[in-house]
Amino acid sequence: MATTADFRNGMCLDIDGNYFFIIEFLHVKPGKGPAFVRTKLRNVTTGRVLDKTWNSGVKVEEVRIERRPYQFLYKDEVGYNFMHPETFEQISIPGEGITGVQFLKEGDMVEAMVHAASETILTCELPAHVVLEITYTEPGVKGDTATNTLKPATVETGAEVRVPLFISEGEKIEIDTRDGSYVGRVRE
Question: I need a labelling partner for 157 at 20 to 30 A (CA). Which of 73, 114, 170, 171 fits?
Answer without folding.
Answer: 114
